[in-house]
Every structure is written in C-alpha cells, then in structure tokens.
Automatic annotation (TrEMBL):
It comes from the Bacteria. It is found in: Cell membrane. Belongs to the auxin efflux carrier (TC 2.A.69) family. This is AEC family transporter. InterPro entries: Mem_transp_PIN-like, Na+/solute_symporter_sf. Keywords: Cell membrane, Membrane, Transmembrane, Transmembrane helix, Transport. The chain crosses the membrane at residues 37-54, 61-81, 121-143, 155-178, 184-204, 216-234, 240-262, 274-295. It is a multi-pass membrane protein. Coiled coil: none annotated. Its main location: membrane.
Amino acid sequence: MQSLLLLLPDFSLILLGAGLRRSLIPDGAFWAGVERLVYFILFPALLFHAMAGADIDPGKALPLFLAGLGVMVAGFVLGWLGRPLMGLDAIGFASRLQCAYRFNTYIGIAVAGKLHGAAGVAMMGALCGAMVPFANIMAVGMLARHGHGGLLRELVRNPLVLATLAGLAVNLSGVALAEPFQFFLKRLSDAAVALGLLAVGSALRWGEAGGRWGGSAWLVSVKLMLLPALAWALGRQLGLGGIAFDTLVMFAALPSASSAYILAMRMGGDGPGVAWLISATTLLAVASLTFWLQLL
C-alpha cells in the first residue's frame, strides 16, 4: 500500500492530463506546444541542473550504465523474439519493437525523486541521459531500414542528450554555477515533472491495437515484468546496491516512452499501434511499478 501511495500523485497527474485533453482542453495544438516546451526546454534544464550538481563516482556510475545498457539490449532481443506473435509487416514491427526497451524519462525522474530525493533525480537523470543515445540508435536504425530519416541527425538534435553531456561537462570542470542561474534552473526543473506527466496523460490513445493480441501482450510483458526481473539479477551480479540498484530496477520497469510514437510517425511507421502500446504500458505500470517498489 505504501508503494502505491508513493506513485499515486504522479499517476494522478497522468490521469489529469488525459481528462483535460478529453474535456476541458481538447485543443491538440495546445498539448503539442506543452510537449515541445517540456521536451526542448524544461526537461533539458532539469537534466542539466541535476548532472551539473551531482556527486558523480565513476566507480559506481560505470557498472550502473553498463547494466542499463544490458537491460535495453535484452529488451530489444526479447522483443525481437516475439515477432512471430505479431503478424506485422517490417515497418509495423520496427515501430512497435521500440516499446520493448524505450523508457519514459518523465515518470522515471518523478519516481526517483520520491524514492531518494535530489540524489535519486541525479542518478536517474544520468542513467536515462546516458541511455537515450543507445535507445535512439536502436530505434532509428531499425526504422531507417524501412522508413525515412537518418540516425546521426536524430542523435545530434536530441535535447536530452545535449543537456546531459553539457551538465556532465560542467560537473567535471569543477565550475560552480552562479546562484541566480541555479535558481532559474530549479524553477524550470520544478515545472518539468508536473507538465511532463500531464503531457504523458494527454498523449494516451486507445483504439484497435492492430496485429495480433499475443504480440502486444508479449511486448507489454517484456517491458513491465521481464526487464525489471533481469535488471534485479544483473544488478546483484554486478554488486550494485543502495540508490544505484533501486535506480536500475526502476529504470527497467518504466513504461514505454511517448517519444516512440513521435519517432514512428516522423519516420513513416505505425503510429497508432505504438500509441496503443505506450498507453497500455503507462496505465499497467501503476500495478507493475507498485509491485517492484514493494520488493525494493
């Protein structure tokens, strides 16, 4: 029950966003503007601020990053093994495969902050920021074979990657940010999580999943149950503990990222099918994240 109460405020924001989109503010242009604000300004500010002020221990960070990468590769492989269950063409499969390993950073940051405060935000931000390029490489690489777009262009324009690298550079340089600038970044960071979760809710979509139900169920199971179990075993094997171990398991248990839908649409993929999977993993994550938090 305590774990569910921990998640309730954040998932309430997601449901509020869904309700606002369907009743009070149905204007798609408004929500598109909110998503752009969060993606290009607020969340990069949060990641930069967290990374610039984090106490980074390379000895602990490297095993965490390697474990995170291992979890994502495992998600890719497990998702690929389910292809015979899906009954989709090549571009449809490439679009949906993203949902087996991509992660919702907004929910991850929110949960990490509840669990471990500023230290949790910094560690989850660092892990997500480090994994974003690899997630894009796998997703764009698959879609580029069948759709449209280029891998390098997607990576060099990704604001989360750029913000993470910039924050890390400031951290390693030892330069202290001016106090007014820190306050400015904090204000932006405070707005990032709330607006990000509202945007997640506004993007929830329901309708026909398309393909075979067995394939969709397999991808959801991989993302919400198999990957966290693998992360748990891998984290113990690598000797992770404390915040690092919690972060790895929660990272693996996160629902699929809404950016998977954007990428699928941008590159000529199966947007509606991806939107359905994102919606399913997001709502089912209320139960699955509660389960993993209870174990932690």
